[in-house]
Amino acid sequence: MKTSNFFCLFAFLTFSSLGMSLAAQKLETVSVVDLEKYAGKWFEISSFPQVFQEGCFCTTAEYTLTKKKIVIVENRCNRGGINGTQTYIIGKAFVKRNSENAKLKVQFFWPFKSKYWIIDLAADYSFAVVGHPNRKYLWILSRTPKMDETIYDTLLTRLQKNGFDLTKLKKTEQI
Question: Using omega within 30 degrees of 0 as the cis cutoff, is the peptide bond preceding 145 cis?
Fold first, then answer.
């Protein structure tokens, strides 16, 4: 499979926004993340769609923890429809020191890194919410392709209280 140009554009857009922040309200992360429990496959339930995600269906992320505590990130989606051509990109995520593994920097293209903050996480690691402190990037993830609507609505309420503009949120079509 071939890495899509959309993913290249993703890197450019992500890295060009590194200096932006929302000074009015600090974005809090979860207190601690067990990377071994966090590793594995996640399904994107919804996100703030980015240009690199145009035409994506069945989006997933798979995280693999290395012995050096680096996280290998493999993002996949089907282009053009549920049965479309699968594209992917592989990167690395590095834990920010003293963040209890809740703040990472993801790198798909050297030397650029982007903030990946885990801002909500189920106690059983069945869902996670990932954002950026500038609030222009947001992903709601689940271990399963579908999420209970009550849980989803609770997450939306928390996100709105944290200053995210939910009018930008779009559900991801999964099988």
Answer: no
For residue range 2-53, what is the model confidence (pLDDT) as tens digits? 444 434 334 333 443 433 433 447 999 999 999 999 999 999 999 998 877 8
CA distance 58 to 146: 11
50 Cα distance to chain centroid: 11
What dihedral angle (degrees, nearest 10) is formed by the CA atoms of 31, 100, 140, 148?
-50
d(CA 153, CA 165) in angstroms, rounded, equals: 14
pLDDT at 174 over 90: yes
Domain 5-170 sits in CATH at: 2.40.128.20
What distance in Å separates the CA atoms of residue 11 and residue 138, rounded to the nearest whole number?
15
- Dihedrals phi, psi of 31, to nearest 5 degrees: -75, -35
Q: Which of 84, 71, 6 is nearest to 38 (CA)?
A: 71
